[in-house]
């Protein structure tokens, strides 16, 4: 596939921001490259540009019957569930759980040492994601089962060839399908258990269990599992990438002053609030927010 990447790069250089190529003579793909061309893809109507065709790579990952495997109306409804789940008003109540995960994780570290920042931050984000999206039961009792499955799903789903032929029978795709099936089984069982027990938790899983389709039907176990996997996959990538780059920039020689300023700001704000931390207090950390936004500007996820 290195050869294919070189061909695409060469065509971009030769033909400009919009060009179409034939992949192995069986599939035509149009490329939109750069800030002027890309908006046409995201802003075009479904009749002009079908995002579902582009994102067929996600169907084996998210599962059938969700997101880019359904019509636009159904997909829009499912996306609204995701947007609602991560609205600030819903995330406010999860700050305590997030902070506890962070404190517990770093409490295991010593005062000195060398770590792989990318690995550590990605693992921490997955811990937080499991607690806030999948629920306390999975986080406390099944994380050692779930985490490797998600990691394998991340590693085996998004090869360049997968974008063009997502169902090609190759070893990575076989592993992807195997791990996705196991994840589905785990989430299905948790949904069944929670529904039968009547137990209600403060997490995204609960909000999906209580959600209905446009015709009033409760979401099925498969739909809930698919939407959750979509949230985890999308959130894990963007959150990990932005967190890692923020840390890397602040730890660089040019970022040490910003690191010191952010830490001093946190000490002052948290001290003023009696060592308490909540959503509103986090919003006061302007220096930290500026560092995060600048890292995102320099290294978009």
Automatic annotation (TrEMBL):
Keywords, alphabetical: Heme, Iron, Metal-binding
UniProt keyword Flavoprotein present: no
Domain of life: Eukaryota
Pfam families cross-referenced by the UniProt entry: p450 (PF00067)
UniProt KW Heme keyword: yes
GO molecular function ontology, one term from the record: heme binding
Family under the similarity heading: Belongs to the cytochrome P450 family.
PANTHER family in alphabetical order: 24-HYDROXYCHOLESTEROL 7-ALPHA-HYDROXYLASE, CYTOCHROME P450 FAMILY 7
Protein name listed in UniProt: Cytochrome P450
Species this chain originates from: Miscanthus lutarioriparius
Lineage: Eukaryota, Viridiplantae, Streptophyta, Embryophyta, Tracheophyta
